[in-house]
Design a protein that fits this description.
The complex is a heterodimer. Chain A is of the alpha+beta class. Chain A has 3 domains: 38 residues, no CATH class; 162 residues, Sandwich (Jelly Rolls); 64 residues. Chain A is built from 7 helices and 16 strands. In chain A, strands 1, 2, 3, 4, 5, 6, 7, 8, 9, 10, 11 and 12 form a 12-stranded mixed sheet that branches. Chain A has a two-stranded antiparallel ribbon with strand order 13-15. In chain A, strands 14-16 form a two-stranded antiparallel ribbon. In chain A, 31% of the residues are buried. Chain B has 2 domains: 118 residues, Rna Polymerase Sigma Factor, Chain: A (Orthogonal Bundle), CATH 1.10.1740.10; 73 residues, Orthogonal Bundle (Arc Repressor Mutant, subunit A). Chain B contains 12 helices and no strands. Chain B is globular, with a radius of gyration of 20 Å. Classes of the chains: A alpha+beta, B mainly alpha. The interface between A and B is large, with 68 and 64 residues.
Chain lengths: 308, 197
């Protein structure tokens, strides 16, 4: 109800603080709040709009059923990619899911947990008895939403680091060969081990740990997790980044070299978002609009006059 | 005429085609921008974005629909401009500011299902479906508020009930709409829980 008072501008400063604390305490609360607000705002802008008075179309029911059927079809498509291999040390049958081309694919695990697997990544787990021994092998990057079950720890093995989950949403990047592993936590708690089983640290929500296997050092930093949650939906979100960070990220995503062809304010920090399927031209144009910097493909032609 | 035909005419420099596209999308764009930066600043951002579309008409890589391009451009602009000092003044206090900033970030036009349905797809049918199924009293109050534009106090006076009862009905309707719009799969479940009450 506080939300409604806020939407109608009737809250006191004390109530604003209460609402702010509630929103910041849980990403679900933020999502709930912002969606209620979006609906309210949309309807208010439509006020008097004829659309709502029209009688509803008879197809409405069918359409909804069809949506869920389409979702089910998409799921079976993912499982078709899965193949069976043998667990390296125990001889148990394994399911491996890999994602070579999609921005992210969703995998439902037998225990009710879900994984959003990034491009060029794979996970393997035992095809039987997963609910009793929740152990996964990961190579690459994935985001996990783990079903809580305090009797059965959920453990992700990577080439450089093991993550034991104490219940929750988190993101792991661990590629073989680069000697570092990254874990970012959105909700809950996770415990990190090195490959020898030595306990490294317990992460709090909003923290990112980078582990360097050569020096055995762990760096902890605070990160905004909303960008991480959007990644799951195929959206790239960068907050408070410099033009160099934007450039590096775009070069990686679009597999191309970029050059800064026109200047913007020195040392500026920007926020940028785009969908993974966007065209490079459009993203570069967006960068120019928000930052003033003109980025061009390094082998491409230079625009006649970037500043117009 | 659909967007794609108008876009190709606009690309050839047809100003009329651009005007039609503008008229078609401007309201949704203003509503969407208003959600993030407030109504005072939304007009500027939306004008800027449309101007840019016209400037870039020859090279723009949009072909079937203009809306996704517009919303993403607005989203990026809005997030970058709410950091500026002039925006700070419009907030009542630091908590209001934090709430506005946090929620603005969540309005990504592709990642947020509610935004996608409302502002990208103009999916009024989804709203109608839910509104029709609200309990009578709730539905009546919902319409008085959002369609007839009456304030909560006016509704309370007309129906001879308290303002907080009106608040309750409106909030319940918003909650159900939000739940239904954010995930169609739980639609049945919500209907069920409504009938049980």
């Amino acid at each position: 109800m506080l939300i409604l008072s806020w939407l109608r501008g009737r809250t006191t400063e004390e109530e604003d603080r209460e609402l702010c604390d509630w929103i910041e305490s849980d990403p679900d609360n933020l999502e709930y709040f912002s969606q209620v607000r979006a609906v309210d705002s949309f309807l208010k802008n439509r006020q008097g709009g004829a659309a709502l008075n029209k009688s509803a179309k008879p197809h409405a029911w069918k359409r909804l059923v069809w949506v869920s059927a389409a979702a089910a079809a998409a799921f079976s498509g993912i499982f078709a990619v899965a193949r069976y291999v043998v667990w390296p040390d125990s001889g148990r049958d394994m399911v491996t899911c890999s994602n070579d081309s999609e921005p992210s694919i969703l995998i439902d695990l037998p225990d009710g947990s879900r994984i959003w697997l990034a491009e060029n990544s794979s996970v393997s787990y035992a095809s039987e008895g997963f609910s009793d021994d929740r152990t996964l092998l990961l190579e690459g990057e994935a985001m996990f939403d783990v079903a809580s079950d305090s009797l059965h720890p959920f453990v992700v093995h990577g080439p450089d680091m093991d993550v034991e989950v104490l219940g929750t949403v988190f993101n792991v990047v661990d590629c073989a060969g680069d000697g570092t592993a990254e874990t970012t936590l959105a909700e809950g708690r996770v415990l990190l081990h090195d490959p020898d089983g030595q306990e490294l640290i317990v992460l709090r929500p909003g923290q990112k740990a980078v582990y360097h296997s050569d020096t055995k050092r762990v760096d902890i930093s605070d990160v905004p997790t909303s960008g991480m949650l959007m990644w799951r939906d195929g959206v790239i979100f960068m907050e408070n980044v410099t033009i160099r960070q934007i450039k590096a990220r775009l070069e990686e995503d679009f597999r191309t070299n970029l050059r800064i062809a026109g200047g913007g304010p020195e040392g500026g920090l920007f926020t940028l978002s785009y969908v993974r399927t966007a065209r490079l031209d459009d993203v570069l144009d967006m960068v120019e609009t928000i930052s003033g910097y003109v980025l061009v493909p390094d082998d491409g032609p230079v625009p006649q006059n970037g500043m117009k | 005429m659909d967007d794609s035909a108008l876009i190709s005419r606009m690309k050839e420099g047809d100003r009329k085609a651009f005007n039609i596209l503008y008229a078609r999308h401007v309201d949704a764009c203003r509503g969407y921008a208003g959600l993030m930066v407030g109504n005072m600043f939304s007009t500027d951002i939306v004008q800027d974005v449309f101007l840019k579309v016209w400037d870039r008409r020859a090279t723009i890589s949009v072909s079937d629909s203009l809306r996704p391009y517009l919303l993403r451009a607005i989203y990026n602009r809005a997030l970058n401009s709410i950091r500026g000092a002039s925006y700070r003044q419009q907030y009542r206090n630091e908590y209001a500011e934090r709430i506005e900033r946090l929620s603005a970030q969540t309005y990504d036009p592709d990642a947020n299902e509610v935004i996608r349905k409302l502002y990208l797809k103009d999916d009024m049918a989804a709203i109608e479906d839910v509104v029709r199924l609200l309990p009578d009293r709730c539905c009546q109050i919902f319409r008085m508020s959002y369609i007839n534009g009456l304030s909560h106090k006016e509704i309370a006076l007309r129906l001879g009930i308290s303002v907080s009862t009106v608040d309750n009905h409106i909030y319940k309707a918003l909650k159900v709409l939000r739940e239904n719009l954010s995930d169609p799969r739980i639609y049945m479940m919500i209907l069920f829980s409504l009938f049980l009450r």
